[in-house]
Amino acid sequence: MARAELMDFDQALELFEPVIGLEVHVELNTTTKMFSSAPNPANSAFHGAEPNTLVSPVCLGLPGSLPVVNGDAVRKSISLGLALGCSIAESSRFARKNYFYPDLAKNYQISQYDEPIAFDGELEVEIEGGKTFMIPIERAHMEEDAGKLTHVGGSTGRIQGAEYSLVDYNRAGVPLVEIVTRPIFGAEADAPALAKAYVATIRDIAIALGISEARMERGNLRCDANVSLRPRGQEKLGTRTETKNVNSFRSIERAVRYEIQRQAAILAKGGTITQETRHWHEDTGATSAGRPKSDADDYRYFPEPDLVPVVPSAELIEELRAALPEAPAARRRRLKGEWGFTDLEFQDVANSGLLNEVAETVAAGASPAAARKWWTGELTRLANASERDVVELATPAQVAELAALVDAGTLTDRLARQVLEGVVAGEGSPQQIVDARGLAVVSDDGALIAAIDQALASQPDVLAKIRDGKVQAAGAVIGAVMKAMQGKADAARVRELVLERAAAVE
Amino acid sequence: MSEISAEQVAHLANLARIALTDEEIGHLTTELAQIMHAVEKVSEVATPDVPPTSHPIPMQNVYRDDVVGNTLTAEEALSGAPESDGSRFVVTAILGEEQ
Fold first, then answer.
1. Tens-digit pLDDT profile for residues A128-145
2. Based on the number of CB atoms within 10 Å of its own CB, is A236 exposed (0-12), middle (13-18) or buried (19 or more)?
3. Which of A210, A211, A363, A397 is deepest in the core (most CB within 10 A)?
4. Could you give all domains of chain A from N- to C-terminal order, each with its CATH number?
């Protein structure tokens, strides 16, 4: 649907109530796959491997191969379930979801159906601006990821018009936890922002638990967004669509907003919504129709006969519960108080996904203000300029060391930025770069005075103005001195000395 | 008593990618109904005090340590493939059935 045909968002909200439901897939970062001892590409140690090199007979569904459950994946799934406030099933089992598509060679996916590992949870989610919502979690179940298809041929390279497909089974069998919400009511105009914040909260939980790399751009975290509208005052839920392929936090918000506007336009004209999956297109900012949604019956689920039930002991569950980190929403409230940030300053950090970096930098000794400044300022700028991930540019320890050098007066902000460029270029620790590049502030007053005297001598008119009480004229001398010192001087100290010398020199 | 319709058999055959003639659908409809009735007998003995059995052997919690084992090389993985590009399997494009 063209942009112009969409209904205005505010108007859509006047006529209809949006109801959303979110399915989030989290790839676990175990060393090996869910049912096979092949290396797991969702673990950063194996990321980017050549196609079909992280496979075993189980991943390829070869005759005679049998799955065996990865115990660590079960423990990580339970931890995630607990962090989502879920009950953990006393007994849980796997099921076969049958479908024919070459992304899984077995022609079925091992998943869970009627006995998921975790169910009935609740997650507190805070949106930008500080409003919080309780998101009801229906279930979190374990399953295996599918292989990756690349469609070749056709004019666009997209699936339509493809002539053949190339299959890489490295991802087949990667441990996944699928988290399914119940329908979320009452978000109203915040529905798009809430969808985004919910997935960001799951990302934070996964990182805090250390169970997933949780990087959306790598597909470690994926979101399918269900959206339906019902006319104001109507009890019955409207027909929903499920938008897939939403690969960034920003896209989640945009996709939900788009579906609300698209469905509203259709319903307002008396049309009906088709229950279907839709594909999100990042480039056009629109969704397009996919396949009609299959009924669960069509997957002909049945208990996986090759695997036995998962019956976690109460001791194991309590052990994992005791090891849970602080809930993200509570942690944010605590950090905001401890750091003394304004709402805006805190959101600046949180929305940049730099909460952990700033927290670790503060823990390493930096002031919260300095930690925030370096991460959301210069480092983010360098990351954008080089199209790299900001967290890969420097470590919290390096940033804390840099801040300490500034506090000690060894570096000015300007010099510190140069040191940071050195850190990003991998030249070593801030102190090593200061030594190697000779970047420390010239704190020797003798050297400064010599440069000041020279600058004053060469600009007698400026000297005269300063002596007449026009102190702002000192700027020209300070500039000349800073240039002579190659920027390695504290401008405030230079100013003090300039005024002193102007009064003293003959 | 469950009844099986010819439409259900045709639908199942389609899901299983099995081509059936009308004649085959006819006698499979009868046979499937008989199988269903036989299986229904289980529900007569499945009282609430009988726990469901998901495995013939009463076992639970069979796990593997999270340690890398033997893997195949890409060459080995592709050795049985009808067609490959040297590193990936080549399959006919199947449209619109992505799960």
1. 878 999 999 999 999 999
2. exposed
3. A211
4. 3-49+59-145+174-302 (no CATH), 327-437 (no CATH), 445-504 (1.10.10)
